[in-house]
User: Fold UPF0303 protein FHS34_000150 from Streptomyces echinatus.
Amino acid sequence: MPRITSEPAPSVEELEAQQRRLVFRRFTHDDAWALGSLLVGLARERQAPVAIDIHRAGQQLFHAALPGSTVDNDAWIARKRRVVERYGAASYLVGARFRAKGTTFEESSRLDPDVYAAHGGSFPITVDGAGVIGTVTVSGLPQLQDHRLVVEALEQFLDRPTG
Assistant:
């Protein structure tokens, strides 16, 4: 079964700190494959029914659909990815910022909810000196778990020794 935690949701400040910390020196096609494969491994360990997507500069570099995921997960990926591309911030962070103001993304963004979803699971791929150049997105778990899975994979990927 997927691992479900009962930890409280992170604050806007914690989410912003994650984003400042999880920055790449570079991001290549090979990095997309390695990061996507790492996410697949983590999801398989947990039997998580997710779809995983990595985009860079408008090009899909990685996509995997694990058992139990559906075509709806691909639609959620696209909607969450568009939020990151528009706001330059993690989809969960964007939603949290609206909630912190006492509203919701759907009520206050003035964006079509069929096109944009500020739900957890999409995270910007930020390259030092270049800014946001892409996205890594997971869909299939509750939004906070989608977000945490992506963050866990980014932390492992960025902490690994480079040769």
